[in-house]
Design a protein that fits this description.
Layout lengths: L1 H11 L12 H10 L5 H15 L2 H7 L11 E4 L3 E2 L6 H20 L5 E8 L3 H10 L3 H18 L6 E4 L3 H16 L3 E11 L4 E3 L4 E6 L2 E6 L7 E10 L5 H10 L7 H12 L5 E2 L1 E3 L8 E2 L2 E6 L2
Parallel strand pairs: 1-3, 2-3, 3-4
Antiparallel strand pairs: 5-6, 5-9, 7-8, 9-10, 11-13, 12-13
Helix pairs in contact: 1-3, 6-7, 9-10
Enzyme class: ligase
EC number: 6.1.1.10
Protein name: methionine--tRNA ligase
Length: about 300
Amino acid sequence: VGRAMVSTLVGVVADCDTEKGLIPEPVRATVRAMAPAHPVIEAEQYLDCMLEALGLACVCKEYRLPEFKELQDTYYVTTPIYYVNGVPHIGHVYSTMLADVCARWARLRGIYTNVVFQTGTDEHGQKVQQTAEGKGIHPKELADQISAQFKACFDAFEFSYDRFIRTTDADHLKTVHNLWNTLQEKGLIHKDKYEGWYCVSDEAFVTDRGVTDGMFEGKPCKVTVESNRPVIRIEEEGYMFKLSQFGDRLIDFFTKHPNVIEPAFRQREIIAFIKRGLRDLSISRPKAKITWGLPVPGDDDHVVSV
């Protein structure tokens, strides 16, 4: 049956201008009709071979038919890693299901040398520490309990993850320290005083542009524009990443890669944000304020910000 399909397709494209890739409309209709004629894998194999032989790669692109491709590098998909200050809910399942679909489709296509799908739990930070204190247990005990629930939930849905990572894993600590040391060796980390807004719920420092007036528990306060969660004003010494040095380089990258972020209006939004000027990024917290975190290499008085 596959051979018959190839013969038919060879016949209908025989009069095409293969050098210019011009295809008459009647032929286009025939090609469209032939694509779903057989089981997907079989159809892809024969269409790829036939179209490649005739030099009609343009047919594949124009009609979204499968292209003959050499194996590409690793396809990597990850979910957010989920905070362990609360149990898993339908939002976590939804996010992980989207990633699972991407990973399964990438494996099915068979054009990647390796497909890696990662999910897991983010187990450090002030929010986790406060939740554990409220329960009267150590943060690691809370992390063990909630992380196990996330893993059991994802296994129940049969998500095909390759790695369920925990930020308390030994290899995660090693990787964080390696990255920190590399950045420090390149002169991209410096110690300075940070003064600004901090959102405990989001575990994030927030710029003045990212803060507005709002309400929390019936009381007026400052909140983040993005999540509408309350922020506090802090002043503390810590380590800063020299993000301000990368503005022009980032704009150049996004300009040359217009489809790297989707939807497109989000990429335009990010470019506009960068053009307003980037500030150095605080990447540590004093251990006097938060004890539950990965230690900064060579400085026991600070922990790495999550």
